[in-house]
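User: Can you predict the 3D structure of L-ascorbate oxidase? Sequence below.
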Amino acid sequence: MGKLLYVCCIMLLLLQAGLASKTRHFKWEVGYMYASPDCEEKILLGINGQFPGPTVRAKAGDTIHVELKNALHTEGVVIHWHGIRQYGTPWADGTASISQCAINPEETFIYRFQVDKAGTYFYHGHYGMQRAAGLYGSLIVEVADGEEELFHYDGEFNLLLSDWYHQSIYDQMVGLSSKPFRWIGEPQSLLINGRGQYNCSLAAHLMEGSSACKLTSKDCAPVVLRVLPGKTYRLRVASTTSLSSLNLAIGNHKMMVVEADGNYVEPFIVDDMDIYSGESYSVLITTDQNPSSNYWLSVGVRGRKPNTQPALAIVSYQPNSPSKLPESSPPVTPKWNDYNHSKSFSYKILARQGTPKPPSYADRQIALLNTQNKINGYIKWSINNISLALPPTPYLGSMRYRLKNAFDTSKPPENFPSDYDVMKPPKNPSSAQSSNAYVIQFNSTVDVILQNANALADNVSEIHPWHLHGHDFWVLGYGDGRFEEKDDSKFNLENPPLRNTVVIFPYGWTAIRFVADNPGVWAFHCHIEPHLHMGMGVIFAEGVDHVRRIPKEAITCGMTGKMLMNNNLP
Ligand code: C2O
Ligand code: CU
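Assistant: Sure. Here are the predicted structure tokens for L-ascorbate oxidase:
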């Protein structure tokens, strides 16, 4: 009898757990489609005929099940779930040549993974430059049933920011790998939830009633945030730009930053916020301004001399008509090269109390020098003088099954020459391509020092937002110039923020720490699409022997991968 009661209890518990977390099913088809995201018609990558792709909403603990069909005629595709750590499912990370083979045209791949932590995330293509062709969408994870958010709000809005080029990604890729090099230039427009206005200042247009903006297509009508006076709203902001670093501000309203990359931060108040590609934030705004007016939300370019109009949205206090013109002009984006402004924003981001603290020391330190180089006259980006070239057979399968000749097994350097002058162009700009990977002891703690430097031209050093797959990391500190051994005494071990993306400022360094506790092969790279395409990334592999149940279709491509086809995989 007692035993029966026990069994019943267990079954009840299981049932409860089953009820609390759901599996959410999606059936998607990726295809090219016509759209006019900035009022000019182009083709782009959509999902089920939508651009941006459908928003995925789930609760912490849920399982996401996406049946992804590649409906492109002649190219492969994959989708990466940016910010989701993929514990136990490294094959679902959606990185071509790293976690899986690109999905062939007409074929379907199933992504099944758990979203374990509430926060603001997104997904995007991770093959060639497909993200820049429009393959992206939002992924919002709410707190689990029965749990409460740490802060109160009355409503929320989701703003997915991107930049948009009229030139196709093929044109862009050919230019980047041509001699002479052809740079992609600045984007034609900035998009908010896939909408922008090319070559038209919306504000000026509406104020003067000029006809410069052809707002004929509903694809490019500005986003409207309908709010009620006297309330608090959560804005979820994420950036999936190809190139641009952005700044967001709302006329007359302050913002309180509460979340960064799916982790709570110690709340702080700002007038404007920077956001780099790969980052996400939640900010709270209070609608405490004159309710008879509407207000502009403006998004402009930072860190590069802008040649793109700011994107605008309208915060409309109800019951005002959304077409009622805001009384004050749109907030002005801080000067593009005011890096002190950017630094002061980054330095304010600290972990909220209760955030797990980093281990107090690291088992290994890897210093990564980011340089611009030349390989046989082609311009590339390199890390410790190696430009990443991905192998045909994905690392995950070839490492797990110890395939021979699948990638370069030499050890990438842990450091760079101590006499390298980061303030000057490289003395010898030549470099080499490789597919080698950093193999990391399972469960060890790793520090990475990202060191920025001067590019090929004099007096140029760019912003690079670095993104780590499979992990959150602690941001231990930033500094100007070259990192010195003694700088680690200044690391913040008290309340460093946990993030998945962090910026390195021009001529500066950024230090991060993470625990290699997630068996798999993970990309760590600059989130600027053309930079990654030009080799700006590295590969970390950890605990690969612990990986189980890799789907066959994720690994059986390339010469070596095909050898697995007839083998019986365990
Ligand atoms: Cu959102 Cu590997 O990137
Ligand atoms: Cu970069």
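The two ends are 41 Å apart (CA to CA). The mean pLDDT is 94.
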